[in-house]
TrEMBL record:
GO MF, any single term: DNA binding
The species this protein was found in: Rhizobium mongolense subsp. loessense
Keywords: Activator, DNA-binding, Nodulation, Transcription, Transcription regulation
Family: Belongs to the LysR transcriptional regulatory family.
Protein name (database record): DNA-binding transcriptional regulator, LysR family
DNA repair as UniProt keyword: no
Residue span, HTH lysR-type domain: 4-61
Keyword Repeat among record annotations: no
InterPro entries cross-referenced by the UniProt entry: LysR-type_TF, LysR_HTH_N, LysR_subst-bd, WH-like_DNA-bd_sf, WH_DNA-bd_sf
Length: 310
């Protein structure tokens, strides 16, 4: 029984990443003809063309797309097995990590995270980028190291996720709003004029589902894509914003917050990363920093003229 040439896994990983024989040859320091022969062997071994001509370039077949993540993980794990265990010296670590988050994370957890990282690893820079959607591609291609958010159906099945904290929605209005002085009931809440937060532009959400058993429906005046926009509008008008309480704590400074009189499901904010970085000591250290910072913050109390209502 013949054994497969496992060296072909490295070649296959580079070919599927580059989608170019010439590009793969350059990365592996081979001649284009040698890479073409390797591709022919891979096609024979897998029983699939893997890369096919499309115009002037090559595109991956469905089988190649299916293999790409698996092969990448195998190569990464194989390299980790054959690499000596590194002792991480944080004082000498020079690296930039990119973190992708929805608005609210940096405002609430950024200062503590930056302080902790700066104290332990002064050569590390954190780069925060916005999260306009739930696309997993930035984690897959390595342009993002870590991401926070609610795990949903759009998350890639290969990604790792760990819960950071649970959060619940609160209502928020400007100080001096008429709702500051009334007992909050489902009817009172629904009668207000509301801001809906939806990155996909939807016209309803979990709060609307929670109002349905009461026979109530909110008046949605406007739809925005993020928490900062919703709270800025609520701060400057009589509109009501409903946002995750802990995640938006600092964004709500100086505003009146109240528990919702209905019970939409709590949400769980999780930390997400690609498995290629599981064994990376520096990445493991950063993940632990994020977990400790999020666990160490006490729940943000609402700014309210009537604390007993919280």
């Amino acid at each position: 029984m013949s054994h497969p040439d496992l060296n072909l896994l490295i070649t296959l990983n580079v070919l599927l990443t580059e989608c170019s024989v010439a590009g793969a040859a350059k990365r592996l320091r081979l001649s284009p003809s040698a890479m073409s022969r390797a591709l022919a062997r891979l096609r024979e071994a897998t029983g699939d063309p893997l890369l096919v001509r499309a115009g002037r370039g090559l595109v991956a077949t469905p089988r190649a797309l299916e293999l790409r993540e698996r092969v990448g993980r195998l190569v990464q794990e194989g390299e980790a097995v054959l690499r000596p265990v590194e002792t991480l010296d944080l004082t000498r670590l020079l690296r930039t990590f990119t973190l992708r988050n929805q608005d609210g994370f940096v405002e609430n957890f950024g200062p503590d995270l930056i302080a902790r990282v700066g104290e332990q690893a002064p050569g590390v820079q954190l780069r925060f980028v916005p999260k306009p959607d739930r696309d997993s591609a930035p984690l897959r291609d390595g342009s993002v190291d870590l991401e926070t958010g609610v795990v949903g159906k759009a998350m890639g099945p290969e990604l790792r996720a760990q819960a950071l904290f649970r959060d619940r929605f609160v209502g928020v209005v400007r100080m001096g709003h008429p709702l500051c002085e009334v007992a909050m009931t489902p009817a009172v809440y629904a009668a207000g004029r509301h801001i809906l937060i939806s990155r996909r532009g939807l016209d309803r959400g979990p709060i609307d589902d929670a109002l349905e058993p009461f026979g109530l429906k909110r008046e949605i005046v406007t739809v925005v894509g993020g928490f900062s926009e919703a709270l800025a509008l609520a701060r400057a008008s009589d509109l009501i914003a409903s946002v995750p309480g802990r995640y938006t704590g600092n964004l709500r400074d100086g505003m009146f917050s109240f528990p919702l009189p209905v019970s939409p499901p709590d949400i769980t904010i999780s930390l997400l990363w690609h498995p290629r970085t599981d064994a990376d000591p520096a990445h493991r250290w950063l993940r632990e920093c994020v977990r400790e910072v999020c666990a160490g913050r006490s729940p943000v109390r609402a700014v309210s003229s009537s604390p007993s209502r919280w």
